[in-house]
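Sequence only, no structure available. Ideas?
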Amino acid sequence: MSIPKVFSPFLKKENIMTTVEIKNILIHKIMSINDVSFLKAIQTIVDSKVDNKILVLTASQKKEIIESKKEIEERLFTEHDALENEIRVWFNEIS
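Reply:
I predicted one. Tokens follow.
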């Protein structure tokens, strides 16, 4: 009987596995699990590490983004340094 290729990392002397090897082992083991609640728990753990959530914007938020992009294209903004200088002048005037 031969040992499945998936488990070959366990036979390495250094016992150092690559990310790909660990993923393959996990996939193989998960495929043999039939406990739905356990699989849901694994899914929760994996979902917490995967950043693939879709951000749903309201119509109002989409409109604000479009308007903001137009303002940037038309340079209708104050750059950070200029705004800091303006604030310094204002503080000096009230002091």
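Residues 59-73 form the longest helix (15 residues).
Hope that gets you unstuck.
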